[in-house]
Structure prediction request, 224 residues.
Amino acid sequence: MNRKLLLSLSVLMLVCGTSFGALLNVNNPSFEGQVQADGTTTKFVNALSWTKTATETRVWMRNPLSSDVLQPTNGANMAYVTFNGSLYQTILPIAENTRYTLTIDLAAATNNPDTGAALTTSIAFGEIGLYANGFNPTSLLTNQRFGKTNPDDTNTEIFTDHFETFSISWDSTASSKIGQTLWITITTGQVWVDNVRLDATVIPEPASMMLLTFGGLMILKKKR
Ligand SMILES: [Ca+2]
Ligand SMILES: [Ca+2]
Prediction:
């Protein structure tokens, strides 16, 4: 195989590989839907595409002053989720042969917005997850905790002075959950969250990938 053909083939495969991914619509992804005066923190209002768990004091919104150390990564607002609090929203039915990647920005809180109490440095963590047909253990597809220091099941760190971006992925290939509704959840403790994104990438089956490559080769051969 000569260099030109190899190069063309590489480009073709690159184009094929990248053209399957697409961002799915997440409603109110950056928590800008709730009007929040500058420098204030209030309880999160339901019915802004996200639903929170029943306990009122566990999900908050803040529009920080420009002098504040921690700033949202997108827009003016960021949301706060404390222990056993959750925010969730439902997305589309789960498609087959698709890799879903949930991406979110997380920061650790220094104070509880409800009580003002300083938070300990050892226990804060954000947990993000994908679920099918509801927020319960049996519907869990994937989740991960992103910790402030050393939580039980993570080795990634979050900080009080800036947001960091984290992602988790789940592949629907051969899953019994295909056709069920996909849920995004942001849950547990003492974290600020912002800028939620969900990507769906079609995973080509080996047969169709071979066909694509073969087809590409034939086209290139014809051109030469
Ligand atoms: Ca925001
Ligand atoms: Ca502001």
User: Anything to note?
Assistant: The pocket of calcium ion (ligand 1) is lined by residues 30-32, 72, 74-75, 77-78, 194 (CB under 6 Å). The radius of gyration is 21 Å. Residues 206-223 form the longest helix (18 residues). Residues 18-203 form a domain with the Jelly Rolls fold (CATH 2.60.120.260).
